[in-house]
Amino acid sequence: MPGTEFNDVEDSCYIAIFKNTGAINDGVAANTWYVGNIFMKEYYVVFDMTPKDERGLSYIQVGIGRQNNNNLFGD
């Protein structure tokens, strides 16, 4: 994301993905990653629970693709 999204200079660059490095808090594991709204407004993000729900595995899958601005839902 350009720095202007964060009240910084345009030459700065940020990625809107953050890692929780603290201890387990309210049931959230210490190594949880967060993807914010700023990231999601330009990308199509799909959270696939299939590995955990249907196969009993200990993870989920996340698919990320560039958003198609010609076919937006909710606009």
Short description:
With about 80 residues, the chain is α+β, with helices and mostly antiparallel strands. It contains 2 helices and 4 strands; from the N terminus they run E-E-H-E-H-E.
Explain the layout of strands and helices.
Elements: E1 17-19, E2 33-35, H1 37-40, E3 43-48, H2 50-55, E4 61-66
Description:
The protein is an alpha+beta fold and 75 residues long. It has two domains: 1-41, no CATH class; 42-75, no CATH class. The protein has helices at residues 37-40, 50-55, and strands at residues 17-19, 33-35, 43-48, 61-66. It has a two-stranded antiparallel ribbon. A two-stranded antiparallel sheet has the order 3-4. The longest helix is centred in the C-terminal third of the chain and has 6 residues, at 50-55. The mean pLDDT is 77.
Count of alpha and pi helical runs: 2
Number of domains: 2
> Structural class, from secondary structure content?
alpha+beta
Mean pLDDT: 77
Radius of gyration computed on alpha carbons? 16 Å
Major beta sheet, strand line-up: 1-2
Low-confidence stretches: none
Strand content: 15-25%
N→C terminal distance: 22 Å
Q: Count the E strands.
A: 4
State the main characteristics.
75 residues; alpha+beta; 2 domains; two-stranded antiparallel sheet; two-stranded antiparallel ribbon; 2 helices; 4 strands; 13% helix; flat
